[in-house]
Structure formats: structure tokens, C-alpha cells
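Thread: "does anyone have the structure for this chain?"

Original post by V.I.:
We have the sequence but no experimental structure in hand. Need at least a predicted one for the grant figures.
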Amino acid sequence: MKIHQIILALLLLSNPVQTYNQTKTKPNLKKLNWLIGSWTRTNAKPGETASETWKKVSPEKFIGLGITMKGADTVFSEKLQLLVKGNALYYAADVAENKEPTLFKLTDMTANGFVCENTAHDFPKKIVYKRSGNTLKAIISGDGKSIDFNFIKNTK
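Reply from O.Q.:
Generated one for you, C-alpha cells below.
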């Protein structure tokens, strides 16, 4: 009889855990909808212009493009993504110098920013986006080095 009671108790205790796991929602990018649109860099090098543009593909994927121009010439270009992979969110940077996109795991997200990290990457190891109204600061850092990218949102 005791065995039956133990089995029944275990079944009852495991049911709430099962229900929780089944109803747990998949991560999404909803808090980051403010990123969608075109952003112009305000601290580009003299003679250069730079921008980032983000589009929402789905609740689980944004695509972005970062471009730096010098006159009519493209000096730098990177394809960007924010995406759900498994049960985590990632920032992916795809630049010509690398064979594959570099993934940075999203480690913190608020209504006005996010932090992504990949400690195994050479540089950057950390990417931070912070929004204040129509301004945005992206900071890439690692190994004691840090670079700020300041943007203003295009309202057209």
C-alpha cells in the first residue's frame, strides 16, 4: 500500500512541473520592437556616413544591415540578425572577413536595451545596445577595449 501512495504522491508532484514546462513560452523579441527602423550614426569618422537598419521578419527574427560609406564607396558592411535559436536569443553578425556569422548570446534585455556576449570571440566579446528616446548607443567591447556607436532614429 505504501508503494502506491508514494507513486501517487510522485505523480501529483510531477504534474505541476510538466504543466509549467509545456506552457513555458518560447523567447521572442517583442521588447525590442523599438529597434525596427533606420538609424543614422552621429559619431562616424570625418568624411564617412554610417547607418543601421532593422526589419522585423517575425516575432522571433529581426534582420539588420550596418553600412559605412565614404562618398559613394562602401567602406564596411555587416549583415545583422536578432533571432531565437533553441530556447535562447542571439545577436548574429555576418561580416566578409568571417566564414560564418558570429553568434552572441543575449544575456540581458530590458524595454530600452539589451546585452549580448560571446567570450570565445576575439573582438568584440560584448555588445550593448541602449536606447533613450530617439537616440541609440551601441557599445562593442572586450579585452579592455571599447568602441561607442551613437545613432539617431530616422523619423521619415
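V.I.: this helps a lot. Confidence is low (pLDDT under 50) at residues 6-23.
O.Q.: and Helices lie at 2-23.
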